[in-house]
Write a structure and sequence with these properties.
This protein has a single domain, classed as Hotdog Thioesterase (Thiol Ester Dehydrase, Chain A, Roll). Helix content is 22%, strand content 36%. Strands 1-3-4-5-2 form a five-stranded antiparallel β-sheet.
């Protein structure tokens, strides 16, 4: 598991004073890239080799509101690693009271530079499979 820490910026809130729902996908991406970095799998290196992990599905379940200046911990694990599909799961907690803010999943399809679905090269697949975890 990797935990990404962030502080809610004012620009991430909506007219109701809570975090706009669109920001959760960005926070998932931040945690996912940190997860790869923590395991010496630079996403930049993947892209330089012509492989991207396109988001093919995104799920978010909102549990509590996050507001401006809240400190948020985004936990991420890899739960599926196959040649044509991978999946990450996320949990977001507010730091000061450990309240569960949201849970989510992203499913990814490996693609080439032309955006076509491909099989994940064995080098990357085996590295991912070495770091599989059960669901939260």
């Amino acid at each position: 598991m990797t935990t990404a820490k962030l502080r809610v910026r004012f620009a991430e809130t909506d007219q109701m004073g809570i975090v706009h729902h669109s920001n959760y996908a960005i926070w998932f991406e931040l945690a996912r890239v940190n997860w790869l970095d923590d395991r010496n799998m630079s996403y930049k290196e993947w892209e330089d080799s012509g492989v991207s992990l396109a988001v093919s599905e995104l799920q978010v379940q909102y549990r509590n509101s996050a507001k401006f200046d809240d400190e948020i911990n985004v936990e991420v694990i890899l739960t599926v690693a196959k040649s044509r599909r991978s999946q990450f799961e996320y949990r977001l907690f507010r730091s000061n009271d450990n309240a569960l803010i949201a849970t989510g999943k992203t499913t990814h399809t490996p693609t080439n530079r032309q955006g076509q679905a491909i099989r994940l090269p064995e080098k990357w697949l085996s590295q991912l499979q070495n770091h599989l975890e059960s669901s939260f």
